[in-house]
Hints:
Blueprint: H1 2-12, H2 25-34, H3 40-53, H4 57-60, H5 65-72, H6 78-96, H7 104-107, H8 115-126, H9 135-144, H10 152-162, H11 169-181, H12 200-212
Helix pairs in contact: 1-11, 2-8, 5-6, 9-11
Amino acid sequence: MINEVMEYLGRMFPNPKPELNYETDFQCLVAVILSAQCTDKRVNVVTAELFKKYPDSKSLSTLSLEELEQKIYSTGFYRNKAKNILALCNILNEKYDGVVPRDPDVLETLPGVGRKTANVVSSALFGAERIGVDTHIFRVTNRLGLVNAKNPLEVEKQWMKKYPNYCNHDVHFRLVLFGRYHCKAQKPNCENCELKKDCKYYNEKRGEENVCR
Length: 213
Ligand code: SF4
C-alpha cells in the first residue's frame, strides 16, 4: 500500500516546495522554530523583516530578549521562542562558529529544537534520512493504517522501520500537504480520495455507518 500512497501523493504534489522562506541554514532553523503553533505565512512576514537586519546567529544575538520578543510577537508563544532563539544563537556562536550542525541528534540538543524540528531541518538541509512527524503526518499515517501509533515518536519509529526508503524531506512535505489540504482533521475529502479503497479510517467509518442503518 505504501507505494500506492506515495505514487498518489507524488501526482498530487509533484514539486513540494517549502512554504517557509529562508536563504541560509540558520534562517531555516529559526523559521522552523517560529512556525510552531503559527502559520507559515505569518512566519514569512516576520522573518522578512527580521532577517533583513539580523541574517545570522552573530547579528541576531546582539538583540536583547525584549527586542526579539517584540519582533516575533505575532508568531505566538513569543516569550519562549525568543528565549530559545537567543540561547540557540549563543551556542551556535560559541560552539559551532555560527554553523548549523548537520547531525539531527546534535540539533535536537539545541534550545527550542525538538525531535520534529531536528528531523525536518536535517532532512531538508542536509538530506538526513529522517521523517519529522507533525500533527498532519500523525493523523494521516494513522488514518491510512500505515502505522498504528499513539504519539508522533511512535509514528516516527514505526515509519523508519517499515518504510526506510521513504524517510526524506519530500515525503515529509507531501504528507504534510496532504493532511493540510486534503485529508483534513475535521473534513477529510474521502469522496475524492483515490486511497479510500485501502484506507483504514474510511473503511471503519463506512462500516460504522452501515451498522447504524
Ligand atoms: S480516504 Fe479519507 S481519511 Fe483516508 S486518506 Fe483519503 S481523505 Fe484521508
